[in-house]
Amino acid sequence: MSLKIGKVPETVLKRSIIKQIKYKRDEILVGAGVGEDCAAVQLTEDEVLVLSTDPITGTTQDIGALSVHVTANDIASSGAEVIGVMLSVLLPEGTEESELSEMMREVEETCEELRIQTIGGHTEVTRVVNQPVITVTGIGKVKKDRLITTAGAKPGDDIIVTKWIALEGTSILAKEKEEELGGRFSEEFIKEAKGFSSLLSVVKDARIACGYQVHSMHDVTEGGIFGALWEVAEASHVGLSVDLREIPVRQESIEICEFFGINPYELISSGSMLITAENGYDIVRALAEEGISAGVIGKITKGNDRILRNGDEIRYLEPPKTDELYKVL
């Protein structure tokens, strides 16, 4: 089977990766699994080390800041406090030192904002890559009884989405395709879309939500909201029913996606957190009090039906596809 750009399909992930991981240790509380972004390792009787790793490959715009946000979001989705990151930086031949310095400035500025320490890593110039690639490994800690997984969703839970979907993809497209978009949209419109990059952290979203009885959290990344919904349902062995009209999305995202002929619901969406809990509207109100927009978009259900409703129209959620971003870049 020839693999396409983006996340490997779920069937390949299960067949060629997860099935081959057989050796287990007692300290590993959460390991590799569909939809699980973090590993969890028990340190002491009541404290757990949480780790996550992610590469940035879809863009070189704001790559330093983006690399930290993506991994910090994964750690935060487990309910953990992010304490450190390690960087692996691969640079193409001919990269200027000033470019490397700018990446690191972005990394450190973001780390300071989120109170994270850069604790090590590796930097290399190589012919293997044709653009800079940063892989960040994040390290966090959480009390064992406060650990949250993607797989914790329960029938009856409200499904909550924070901020708006497609923020990351919209911002990347506005920056990478600014000249092309300029033929259709105003300078102010494009500037607003580019500014979505300031909304990509869900660390605060997670901290607020963790003050309530949250059963699962999953940051919305590659594959968009449809991918995230599928991964939560698959990991938790549940169904869901979602009202498409309730999914929050900015007008800038809708119009830019229409311009490129792509689906905002399947566009990379860092900045948005998917949460399931019994008391969804209480969490929405708590987030609003801290200036974070959020909404309840549906319910977790028994069984395996994963239903998307749009008025009287009903369709069924499908496994994640290659992110829509790669159709444009």
Supply the number of structural domains: 2
Strand order of the largest sheet: 8-10-7-11-9-12-13
Mean pLDDT: 93
The total beta strand count reads 13
CATH class type of the largest domain:
Alpha Beta
The helix/strand order is HEEEHEHEEEHHHHEHEHEHEEE
Tell me the span between the first and last alpha carbons: 23 Å
The share of residues in helices is 25-40%
CATH superfamily of the largest domain: PurM-like C-terminal domain
Give the overall form.
globular
- In the CATH hierarchy, the third-tier topology of the largest domain is known as Phosphoribosyl-aminoimidazole Synthetase, Chain A, domain 2
Q: How does the major sheet shape up?
A: 7 strands, mixed
What does this structure look like?
This protein is an alpha+beta fold. It folds into 2 domains: 26-146, 60s Ribosomal Protein L30, Chain: A, CATH 3.30.1330.10; 150-327, Alpha-Beta Complex (Phosphoribosyl-aminoimidazole Synthetase, Chain A, domain 2). Helix content is 31%, strand content 26%. The protein has 10 helices and 13 strands. It has helices at residues 10-17, 63-76, 97-114, 167-176, 178-181, 187-194, 203-209, 224-236, 251-260, 280-289, and strands at 28-30, 39-42, 47-56, 81-91, 117-125, 133-143, 158-162, 214-219, 239-243, 273-277, 294-301, 306-310, 313-316. Strands 8-10-7-11-9-12-13 form a 7-stranded mixed sheet, with helices on both faces. A 6-stranded mixed sheet has the order 1-2-3-6-4-5, covered by helices on one side. A hairpin with an 8-residue loop joins β1 and β2 (39-42). It is globular and about 55 Å long. The two termini are 23 Å apart. The mean pLDDT is 93.
